């Protein structure tokens, strides 16, 4: 598992320019929601194969709720509310939290701003994730996710 995570990190951070075999840096842009093209691509994937979603999470210093509520929570604390609540949503669709941990340091490569936390969630297929994220009860929990996250990378992987 550690090797797979390391490979994913290398893919995110760098790529080899095939023209001159030089290392070039990829653009890394954290987001809170996917764009239309990403959703279309995700929904066009293999619906029957289990997927592992690798979440690279970056928290806001202070949580900001879209409804304007006042809070003293940090982004990480708001996200922790979501993280606790989302467990039941994941399990309801047959998914499982595989790994969750704080990022301590970068062992290899370079990045301007390191993520704060990594989580890996296994879903029985992409439609299970779609079902979960469409559920009104999940959307209530996701309010804390949005309040706490500065952005994230959410990488779909499959066991090969």
Description of the molecule:
With 160 residues, this protein is α+β, with helices and mostly antiparallel strands. It has one domain: Alpha-Beta Plaits. The chain is 38% helix and 25% strand. It has five helices and six strands. It has helices spanning 2-13, 36-43, 75-92, 126-134, 136-148, and strands at 14-17, 22-25, 51-59, 96-102, 117-123, 149-157. The chain has a four-stranded antiparallel beta sheet with strand order 4-5-3-6. It has a two-stranded antiparallel ribbon with strand order 1-2. Strand 1 and strand 2 (22-25) form a beta hairpin. 17% of the residues are buried. Mean pLDDT is 83; it is low at 1-16.
**Secondary-structure class:** alpha+beta
Number of strand segments? 6
Give the quaternary arrangement of the chains: single chain
For the biggest β-sheet, the strand order reads 4-5-3-6
Radius of gyration: 16 Å
CATH-assigned fold name: Alpha-Beta Plaits
CATH class membership: Alpha Beta
- The helix/strand order is HEEHEHEEHHE
Query: What is the architecture at the second tier of CATH?
Result: 2-Layer Sandwich
The biggest beta sheet is recorded as: 4 strands, antiparallel
Report the β-strand fraction as a percent range: 25-35%
Report mean pLDDT, rounded to a whole number.
83
H/I helix tally:
5
Query: Helix share of residues?
Result: 25-40%
């Amino acid at each position: 598992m550690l090797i797979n995570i390391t490979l994913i990190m290398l893919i995110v951070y760098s790529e080899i320019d095939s023209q001159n075999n030089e290392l070039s840096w990829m653009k890394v842009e954290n987001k809170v929601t996917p764009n239309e093209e990403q959703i279309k691509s995700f929904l066009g994937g293999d619906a029957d194969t289990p997927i592992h979603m690798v979440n690279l999470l970056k928290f806001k210093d202070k949580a900001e709720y879209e409804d304007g509520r006042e809070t003293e929570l940090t982004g990480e604390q708001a996200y922790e509310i979501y993280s606790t609540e989302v467990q039941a949503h994941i399990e309801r669709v047959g998914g499982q939290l595989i790994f969750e941990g704080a990022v301590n340091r970068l062992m290899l490569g370079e990045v301007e701003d390191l993520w704060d936390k990594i989580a890996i969630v296994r879903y029985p297929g992409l439609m299970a994730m779609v079902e979960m994220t469409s559920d009104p009860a999940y959307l209530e929990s996701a309010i804390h996710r949005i309040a706490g996250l500065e952005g994230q990378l959410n990488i779909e992987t499959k066991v090969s």
